[in-house]
Amino acid sequence: MRRPADFAATLAGSRQGSNLAVAYAAQRGDGRLLVGYIVSKAVGNSVVRHRVTRRLRAIMASHLGAIPPGTGVVIRALPTAADTGYGALSRAVTRTVDQVVRKASQQ
């Protein structure tokens, strides 16, 4: 996901949070699956932000099959994600994304 309009449309959809990340999901009319990431400066310096983003991408790459086509998903990392290991981050993000996708598909 790269266009601001795609982010805005997804952020207006369903939301679910955990102590490490907040996930947003919305149904899209075009049938494409789009995933975006928001990692602000509150998470840490550039090195830390990029590490968190790489981890989120790896987590979502292994989880894309569980998300139905036509869904937009945005994951916003919280500052606590910087100090968390990959396993704990993976569990939290997977659980949060599953819940928000379920909510978005019911609307």
The CATH class label is: Alpha Beta
Shape: globular
Percent helix:
40-55%
Q: Residue-averaged pLDDT, rounded?
A: 96
Count of discrete domains: 1
Number of strands: 4
Please give the count of helices. Answer: 3
Query: What is the strand arrangement across the widest sheet?
Result: 1-2-4-3
Return the CATH topology. Answer: Ribosomal Protein S5, domain 2
Spans of 5+ residues with little confidence (pLDDT < 50)? none
Distance between the termini: 22 Å
Encode the helix/strand succession as letters.
HEEEHEH
Kindly provide the radius of gyration, computed on alpha-carbon positions and rounded to a whole number of angstroms.
13 Å
Secondary-structure arrangement, i.e. CATH architecture: 2-Layer Sandwich
Structural class: alpha+beta
Strand content: 15-25%
**Main beta-sheet strand count, sense and barrel state:** 4 strands, mixed
Task: Pick out its properties.
globular, single chain, Ribosomal Protein S5, domain 2, 21% strand, alpha+beta, 4-stranded mixed sheet, 3 helices, 107 residues
Task: Describe this structure as you would to a colleague.
The protein is an alpha+beta fold. The chain has a single domain (4-106), classed as Ribosomal Protein S5, domain 2, CATH 3.30.230. The protein contains three helices and four strands; from the N terminus they run αβββαβα. It has helices at residues 4-11, 46-61, 86-106; strands at 14-17, 21-27, 34-38, 71-77. Strands 1-2-4-3 form a four-stranded mixed β-sheet, sandwiched between helices. α2 crosses α3 (86-106). The two termini are 22 Å apart. The model has no long low-confidence stretch (mean pLDDT 96).
